[in-house]
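User: Show me a protein chain along with its predicted structure.
Assistant: Here is one chain, sequence first, then structure tokens.
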Amino acid sequence: MLACLLALRTPGYGYGLLKTLDAAGIPSDGNTVYPLLRRLEERGLLTSEWNTDESRPRKFYRTTPAGSALAAQLLTDVTDLTTSLHALDGGTDR
């Protein structure tokens, strides 16, 4: 979810998002991402619009202000968790 919210700060469509996530080292598939996009939109974390300018219509998604706020909070939580885990591990990098 966090990766989608971050990636879609710039508008994108489902297939492009899959490629973006894969390039970032987050492999996923359409069976996971497309339902997630719908749920995030239902919760007001993404907005969407159809682009019919090309031969094949595409639904573009964009992170809403509420989605951006949640992403910022989640990033903070991940950073805090990572710091705590490193402290438990003796502060070593492996």
